[in-house]
Specification:
Elements (H helix, E strand, L loop, with lengths): L2 E3 L12 E3 L16 H6 L8 H36 L4 H67 L24 H18 L8 H31 L2 H13 L3 H11 L2
Antiparallel strand pairs: 1-2
Helix pairs in contact: 2-3, 3-4, 3-5, 4-5, 4-6, 5-6, 5-7
Length: 269
């Protein structure tokens, strides 16, 4: 894609930035196949220009074409009038030329009407695309907020970031319930699985926010695995096979089966 430099102003360094090249003169030529707004906008996908600037350029191009067409018609009509006044005895010929010129003028008017329809269609497509873009931005913002809230909740429940065991949603810990209770761990694992398998898949992997939260997410998962290993050791000492299988299942939900096997081997020593 080619660029052209705008006029340089010594007092404003921003004027040295590249500007998109003007739209091709034949973009709306009648020699092309039927005009498609979708195809036209798709051909501009690598054009560094906002939708509003593109809309303004299209309107300007439409006005320029109208001015050129009117100027062409007026020039030909002036030539016609001069020819009619300078030729004597050629009334029939002049009449033929007048008819032809009128036909040409109708064709020009049809072209102008076509350009207006095309401009209207392009503006509608631009409006639709702008609406879709705003909707995507809104959805992404909600997903980022939900991810941040989940991480805050997990950090609090896992006693990270200076939190105490009394924080967390109401009813998360019942009276007499320890930090290694299977009920508590099951809720923590469910919260992590929702974050990892649902929220993260709705956010681009290269998003800057994810980069800043990578260490925090790693810390949350590592702490959760430590609690699971402690719970597994506890139920093994109690000889509760049912709870042992339940804790093993929580390891599997985290995709950490190898950690579960390693923890089992450690409890047998």
């Amino acid at each position: 894609m080619s660029f052209q430099l705008g006029p340089v102003n010594d007092s404003d360094s921003d004027s040295e930035l590249p500007f998109p090249a003007p739209l091709a003169q034949d973009a709306f030529s009648s020699s092309h196949t039927a005009f498609s707004p979708h195809a036209f906008l798709a051909s501009l996908r690598n054009r560094h220009q906002t939708l509003e600037d593109l809309r303004v350029e299209l309107r300007t191009r439409s006005k320029d074409l109208e001015s050129e067409l009117v100027e062409l018609v007026n020039r030909d009509y002036a030539d016609f009038v001069g020819l009619g006044s300078s030729v004597k005895g050629g009334e029939g010929r002049v009449e033929d030329l007048k008819v032809g010129l009128l036909g040409f003028r109708r064709e020009v008017e049809a072209i102008v009407a076509g350009i207006e329809r095309t401009k209207s269609e392009v503006e509608k497509e631009l409006a639709v695309k702008e609406g879709i873009r705003r909707e995507k931005v809104g959805v992404l913002a909600r997903n980022l907020l939900a991810l941040a809230q989940r991480l805050d909740e997990l950090s609090s429940l896992l006693l990270l970031d200076g939190a105490d065991s009394g924080t967390g949603p109401p009813g998360f810990l019942e009276d007499g319930e320890g930090l290694t209770s299977t009920r508590r761990l099951r809720k923590l694992v469910s919260c992590w699985v929702y974050l990892d398998e649902i929220l993260l898949r709705k956010i681009p992997k290269n998003h800057p926010f994810l980069k800043t939260q990578e260490e925090r997410m790693r810390k949350v998962k590592d702490t959760l695995l430590i609690d699971l290993r402690s719970a597994l050791k506890e139920v093994r000492l109690q000889g509760d096979e049912g709870k042992c299988l339940e804790v093993m299942g929580l390891f599997a939900d985290l995709g950490a089966e190898s950690d579960a096997v390693k923890a089992l081997k450690e409890t047998r020593r």
